[in-house]
Amino acid sequence: MAVVAFGTGATWFVESPSQWKWSALPNGVVRFFGSTTGSKVSHVHNLVFGANNSFMMAWRGQDGCNYQCKDWPSWCTFHCRTPWCLPTALEAWLDEKNAKGNLVRDVPNIRLALGPNNRSFFVSDGKNCFWQNLPAPLDKAIEARRKNGGGFTRAPRIVALGISGNYVLIDDGDVHSFILHKYPALEKQFKEMCAANGNQPGALRDIAYVSLDVFDGVNFVATTHNGEYTGEVPDGGEVEDSFQFVLNTLPKRTAIATPAGRGKTSSGFGTFLKLASVVLNAEANAVNNANSGGGAGANALDLAQQNMAFTQGLQTQMWDSVDASASWNPQ
Fold first, then answer.
1. If 0-12 CB within 10 Å is exposed, 13-18 middle and 19+ buried, where does residue 144 land?
2. In what helix (H) or strand (E) does residue 37 lie, and over which residues does it extend?
3. Is the residue at 56 inside a domain?
4. What gap in Å lies between CA 326 and CA 328, rounded to an integer?
5. pLDDT value of position 107
6. Total domains, the chain
7. How far is the C-alpha of 154 from the C-alpha of 173, rounded, in Å?
8. Strand pairing partners for 68?
9. Distance between CA atoms of 4 and 212, rounded to whole angstroms?
10. What share of the chain is helix, strand, coil (3-state, %, to 5)?
11. What is the pLDDT of residue 258?
């Protein structure tokens, strides 16, 4: 399983089960990977960077225990909070405790997708889901998978949020919905995979993980259950090499073709190719401080939703109003 997080400017993190690399981590995150005292972290279950150095991280410590932590700039707390703090509803869900004072959440299975400017989110711990202020097509797609009496007919397996209302949804029945016009390389690949499968359910069944960059758009990483991967990352040299180094260590990789050259794309979709297409990010070109270390050992395609126009005042990288929150137990 890969863990990929894109942040602002030169901030990024990538981990496989055996390796990790990162650059320009916020202070709230880097303290757990202390360079002088040694890392407190043996494995990151999930890491998401939010606006203005906010973040959420679920991780396993060197002591074998699981933890989840979050942080935001101190001025969030002392200035009556701001839209760029983590949503209070999300914090409350993550921090929920039972009568004995223990966290309710199943920390190793926490998966959070955080939208632009921390205005939207979808989070699950494998047992319960919680979401707020999702793009209208995604919200509709999730609602279509819910049972009248509770639970899901098909529970969300992957939810990724991007800029301008872009998203990916794949449920546990491998029925999917996506809008990816801001991530054209991934959109092209997914559409070709769908066409190759006759536009039937299950075209994206091999997809195991998707991370979308909500700060710069375009950038993404997607991996398969076989450890293959594809993506665009914010640099054509050192950063790309770092991502490839880590992602090449994903387990159960099958033999895949090597792109003819860096910056090339491929139309082959029997397998995912390696990082085949690179986007230069002006903010990230100056990256020169990457750190590295070792971690411990419905509707078949929802095509109507893909083409649905946003009519509820959505703006680039932001949703103006907060829709009703929703939570559901998949069981």
1. middle
2. none
3. yes
4. 7
5. 95
6. 1
7. 6
8. 58
9. 9
10. 20, 25, 55
11. 36
For CA atoms 106, 13, 229, 221, the dihedral sign is positive
Q: What is the pLDDT of residue 195?
A: 94
Provide the domain limits for residue 79: 3-287+298-308
| Residue 115 near residue 214 (C-beta atoms within 8 A) | yes
Strand 229-232 and strand 220-224: pairing? Answer: antiparallel
In the structure encoding, which two tokens stand for residue 262, read together?
Answer: 């860096």
| Rounded mean pLDDT, 66-94 | 71
Determine, yes or no, domain membership for 314: no
Asked if the structure places residue 89 within a domain, the reply is yes
105: confidence class by pLDDT, cuts 50, 70, 90: very high
Residue 145 backbone zone (phi > 0: left; psi -120 to 50: alpha; other: beta): alpha
Rounded CA-CA distance 45/69 in Å is 12
- Say what the pLDDT of residue 86 is: 87
* Stated length of the chain: 331
Instruction: Identify whether 17 is part of a domain.
Output: yes
Which H or E run includes 14?
strand 12-15
